[in-house]
Amino acid sequence: ILGNGKVAKGVTKIGNNDFMFDNDGKLQTNKKMIVSNKYYEVNASGIVTNPKSKWFALDGQTYWVKEDGTV
């Protein structure tokens, strides 16, 4: 729950880092995901990065991430 009393959902900035939460507010960890046509990697601490210009595999398919972070 954020300082404003709302449940964190999706990519949420807390301090200097972005974290990924599911729709129930549960912190996501150790994941690769595509959300709103953007590729995100989530580390063991739940910190999100949006890598650019790289190939990645997800669910048996290979994708290219463009310079703007979109797939």
How do the helices and strands line up, and which of them pair or pack?
Blueprint lengths: L9 E5 L2 E5 L9 E5 L2 E5 L5 E2 L4 E5 L2 E5 L6
Antiparallel strand pairs: 1-2, 3-4, 4-5, 6-7
Description of the molecule:
- The protein is mainly beta and 71 residues long.
- It is built from no helices and seven strands.
Summarize the structure.
The protein contains no helices and seven strands. Helices cover 0% and strands 45% of the residues.
Q: Beta-sheet strand percentage?
A: over 45%
- Shape estimate: elongated
**Which value, in Å, is the CA radius of gyration?**
13 Å
Report the sheet with the most strands, covering strand number, pairing sense and barrel closure. Answer: 3 strands, antiparallel
- In the sheet with the most strands, the strands line up as 3-4-5
Structural class: mainly beta
**Uncertain segments of ≥5 residues (pLDDT<50)?**
none
Residues in helices, as a percent range: under 10%
* Average of pLDDT: 91
Separation, N- and C-terminal Cα atoms? 30 Å
Could you give the order of the helices and strands? Answer: EEEEEEE
Number of strands: 7
